[in-house]
Write a structure and sequence with these properties.
By secondary structure, this protein is α/β, with parallel strands linked by helices. It has 11 helices and 8 strands. It has an 8-stranded mixed beta sheet, sandwiched between helices. Helix 2 links the parallel strand 3 and strand 4 (70-74).
Length: 291
């Protein structure tokens, strides 16, 4: 079964090609942001999650979205080949400011933003800080701020805290958290986005800083105010079998965001964009097209 799925995936991969597959660097104020852009239409900025680079996106997901929208994927700070090496720790709000700098640097007016996992945390604070620059918001398997957040169990937290150590076993344990069925990890090396000169994993020091930013996010004292400030129409996508982020977090966000809708996937795992790439992209497109 696994072998047959692997062969089918290899054959099907050639159906998805992106017009733009080289990373571009743009100098914005005090830092360099690396990004790729492809497709035509209104802009949709995708924010990747913890320990990942822009290569972690599924090409089938990107391809489908790019048929209707201009897609911008980028590296969060301190990832990729050309980045400003921060000497201090940073907050989710700093990463949200980077998104705004990218929007300005690309001369974009209103944008829609989609964030997955930690990228969803960044997207929430971006929506709270820059409501006038945001058209629509999509959140995939993410966590609300402060005491509203429901943390994973201690075993999961321990795995996350060892990911910054270069150890294949730690990486394998992390992969086990991403899918309901471990064998489905074969989809990652086959379908992940492969631009030139980029890796799929952030450097260890960057992972440490992201861990600190997440720890600060879940003790954020203004949690309810942040969510109440989000007035943008929001689509929340939630995986019921997410081993990494308890799905209750998405339901809490839905409760607080008055202009939001929640769609759950009974068999979805944390990076369900690899399980349902076309279906999720189609749902996002329909949401973006709705007045």
């Amino acid at each position: 079964m696994i072998f047959n799925d692997f062969i089918k995936a290899i054959k099907k991969k050639n159906e998805f090609s992106l017009n733009m597959n080289e990373i571009i660097s743009i100098a914005i104020e005090d830092r360099v942001i690396e990004y790729c852009i492809f497709g035509e239409g209104e802009p949709l900025i995708l924010i990747i999650g913890y320990a990942s680079t822009l290569s972690a996106w599924d090409i089938r997901f990107l391809y489908k979205l790019s048929q209707s929208y201009k897609i911008i994927v980028f590296n969060n700070r301190n990832t990729g080949k050309k980045f400003f090496k921060d000497t201090e720790n940073y907050f989710m709000s700093d990463l949200a400011h980077d998104v705004e700098k990218l929007r300005i640097g690309l001369n974009l007016k209103k944008v829609s933003v989609c964030g997955i996992s930690m990228g969803g945390m960044i997207a929430q604070i971006y929506a709270s800080l820059y409501p006038n620059n945001l058209k629509k918001l999509i959140l995939i398997n993410t966590v609300p701020p402060g005491n509203l957040a429901i943390s994973p169990n201690e075993k999961v937290v321990k795995i996350l805290k060892t990911l910054n150590k270069i150890n294949p076993l730690n990486y394998f344990k992390m992969l086990n958290l991403l899918f309901p069925n471990l064998w489905k990890i074969i989809f990652i090396p086959i379908y992940h986005f492969k631009p030139k000169n980029n890796t799929i994993i952030a450097p260890p020091r960057t992972i440490e800083k992201q861990q600190i930013a997440i720890e600060q996010w879940i003790v954020e004292p203004q949690a309810e105010d942040i969510l109440k400030n989000i007035i943008t129409p929001t689509l929340i996508l939630c995986a019921e079998k997410d081993k990494l982020i308890p799905p209750e977090n998405s339901k809490i966000i839905n409760k607080y965001l008055k202009n939001s809708q929640l769609i759950t996937y009974a068999n979805g795992g944390h990076i369900m964009i690899y399980q349902y790439p076309i279906k999720l992209a189609s749902i996002i497109i329909n949401f973006l097209l709705t007045p």
